[in-house]
Structure formats: structure tokens, C-alpha cells
Amino acid sequence: MDNTAVLTDRDLAQALLNIKAVTLAPDAPFTWASGLQSPIYCDNRQTLGYPALRRQITAAFAARVAAHNWTVDVVAGTATAGIPHAAWLADRLEKPMAYVRSAPKGHGKENQIEGRVRTGDVVLLVEDLISTGGSALKAVDALRAAGAEVAAVVAIFTYGFPETAQRFTDAQVDLSVLSDFEALQAVALAEGLLSPAAASVLADWQQAPEAWSAAHS
Fold it and tell me: Model pTM greater than 0.90?
């Protein structure tokens, strides 16, 4: 694997499948923390164990910054899975790094944001996975409340739920992801990891996850 090459969406989908960061189980759905049933499970923390891949992910994030011409003062990660990727990207961009908790600490200074984020700073927020977008948008709210401007949210992978895109539009924050459900499904079909029938099941879930979950509970 070329450590300097920028990943395409399908390259990254293939890599996530190879390292078993993504598991497809249309016949035996997973239960998410929210209680929703899902035929797919994505754990991008697995990328931490693969130095070449994580360098490529960092390079791909940096390429997005350059392509969009984002001005970035600080790179921030969402706690906890976004933190290491934010640190690697901040190092590559030679920028300060911070991270954002899901809620303020219950002790000490009760910080929700750790690291140097000042009023007027332009922050790039790094997330590992976008599902409903709730955790990333909470972090966006916290950064804005601290007086920062959020240039964009970047993430490794998204399930691509239609309502999620609308949430980011409503919040007036750009979302840029390296790979997504469509790329993953295409690779899985090409590799014989999904039958056409199973791919149809996943497509039904992706378009209406709550209804699909209710039907499979």
C-alpha cells in the first residue's frame, strides 16, 4: 500500500472491509446503542492498528482541506474516536489540536472543549463515522458557543442517511466524507461479499433505517 497515495472512496471502502472495520450482516442485524437494528456495523477505531492506512486517511483529509481551500486555525476531534485522526491531521497541517466531549466534564473546570480554541478561531472538526450526525453537530454547537467558527466536519465514513444530510444543511455546516455507503456496497458486490438480494436489503435499510429497524426488531 502506497503511504502517500490519496484514497478514493472505493479504495477506502475496500480497506475498511479488509481490516474488518465494517461488518455486513443483512440476515443477523446488529443493535446500535440507540436501539436501532442495523444490517451493517462500522468500527473505524480498527484503523488505528494499521499505520499505512491511517497515514492515507490523514493524507486524504489534508487533500480535502486543500481542495476546498478551507482556512483552518485549529483541528478538533470528537471524543473519542475522532481524537487520534484529528491529532494526526493537526500534525500534518502544523495546526493546534483540540477535542470536544459529548458533554462538559462533571468536575474540575467542567470543560467540554479541551485544547486551545479561542474566540474567532476557524476549526475543522474530525469525526470517524457519521450516522445520524448527532454527535458531530453537538460538537459543532459547543465550538460555536465557545466563539469559534466551524469550517467543516470531515469524517472517514458515512451511512449516507437522507435525513442526516439535511441536518447538516440546517445547521449550516459543510460535511465532507472520505467514503460512504454507496462506495461500500459497490465494493462488497464486486468482491462477492454481498449477493444482489442482500444488497437490496441494505439499500432498503439505508433509505429508511428507523422503519427497517422496526420491521426487524
Answer: yes
